[in-house]
Amino acid sequence: MNLKRIKEKAIYYFFFLTGILAVIILLGIFLMLLLNGLQTFRDVRFSDFFFGTVWNPSAYGESSYGILSMIVSTFMVTLGAMIIAVPLGIGAAAYIAEIASQRTRDILKTIMGILAGIPSVVIGFIGIVLVGPFIARVFGLSSGLNALNGSILLAVMSLPTIISVSEDAIREVPKEYKEASYALGANRWMTLIKVTIPAAYSGIIVSIMLGIGRAIGETMTVLMATGNASAMPHSFFDSVRTITATIAIEMGEVPYGTTHYYALFAVGATLFLISLGVNLIAEIVTSKYRGAKV
Amino acid sequence: MLAGCARREASDAFIQIKGSDTEVNLVQRLAEEFMKDHQIYIAITGGGSGTGIASLINKQTDIANSSRAMKDEEIKLAKDNGVDPVAIVFALDGLALIVHESLPVESLTLDEISQIYRGEVTNWKEVGGPDLGISMYGRQSNSGTYIYLRDNVIKGDYSPKVRSMNGTAQIVEAVRKDKAGIGYVGIGYIIDDKGNTLSGIKSLEIAKDINSPFVSPLDPENVKSGLYPIVRPLYQYTDGKPKGNILNLILFELSDRGQDLVMKEGYYPVTSEYMEINESLGIFE
Description:
The complex is a heterodimer.
Chain A: H1 2-38, H2 46-51, E1 55-56, E2 64-65, H3 68-99, H4 102-117, H5 120-139, H6 147-171, H7 175-183, H8 188-199, H9 201-216, H10 220-225, H11 243-250, H12 259-293
Chain B: H1 2-12, E1 14-19, H2 21-37, E2 41-47, H3 49-57, E3 63-66, H4 72-80, E4 85-100, E5 107-109, H5 110-118, E6 135-139, H6 144-154, E7 163-165, H7 168-177, E8 181-186, E9 201-203, E10 205-207, H8 220-224, E11 231-239, H9 244-254, H10 256-264, H11 272-279
Parallel strand pairs in B: 1-2, 1-3, 5-10, 6-7, 6-8
Antiparallel strand pairs in B: 3-11, 4-8, 4-9, 4-11
Helix pairs in contact in B: 3-4
């Protein structure tokens, strides 16, 4: 019995240590980004950095370090992806959880697993050769390498996350809610729309937040498919260059210890804070959801 | 004396070359051909022009391949380190401006190219084409070609509307799909194995200024004669004047056989202008 206690203690401390380690690593990453990033502001004004629209560190003339158009681009592509993926994802989740037969459900879940496993470079390639040219043809544009292309691809990439988390949420709605609805004479469709989905609301919000997190940090696909023009976008048909793409493109060329080098860290720190915010919202909503259920 | 001779030959029988990724395949090809006739081993690695130059400064390579001239501070650093960089131009790299094959624009001056990429000219009708917005494609800022064109042709900042592509092949792919597109690529990328231009695109005829003739980069004669204006020299740097097998390698590269290989690989032979610069080094006796 004593041995068992020791074993349990050991297991407890092992997981405690791994947890602590994860926190330390996260803090370390953030501190590194922050400390390096802050050096930027010895040469660049804070307001020029966050509100400047021209990012051109390797300029012919004077370098400029404004990240606003990058941030707008990132949010635009993410927003576009969510406009496409959220209705589709919730619909698919409701179908899988409530309507589909066991067999269909199994098939759909397998397909989703495969979809989630496609490497982002392959999705990006599809964006270049298939989706982009299609967009260009449909809308009569000269090129389909734009924010819309990125949005569509990111929507596809975040669908598996949104569907599986939403499906869990919809499934966890207590049977009594639905039975009560049926008892009042509502049909299956009305019950789903008016009772089940609203009851799963917080779980669905979490799924959307996770989807946003997936989309906002994606690099390879947007790098390949959105055209990478650093100008401020005015519509979804403009080429955009996101935060992640900028870091990926420029990290390889930048000389160590220059303003450009530090600026990339500052850009990374900004993205880190945005992701942190999104995850925090997801976490708050989840804990509220759990609290409500007890 | 015999022993001394053998040792000298042994140290001379291994040449190390580092640097430019643009040059690495070409130099590999040339070296393979050279090794067929010489008892010598040549090791070639890429890593970029900067890497090659740094290795030369640190005396870690015999030859540094570089697709750009060494900067003043690099030369100073080398001299401080007891290295005396000598530059030899062994090939030229031509840049073509490509557009969609259906675009009724055949030629541009350097000034027009500059205005397009600076974002001052935004419609093809301003340069004699149809009423169509220009969509520009270029490389990312870590590309040597991006820097070369910026410093030598654009002479200013690229418009932020230029789409920066991951590689030259992507520029070709994009322009092929874009009726209003323009892009810059190394000649080697738009010619297939049989020497024909790839389908879907065409390369523009370029003139240095309005008083110069418009010439195509597809005819090597135009590059050789210096009429085609967008070519950059490809350098090899050695520490001091090349001697022994290093000199033999360079002489082979500049020979007719070497220059033929250069052309087969999609690059251009050294023009008389650059040959004179090479000769002024006094390494050929």
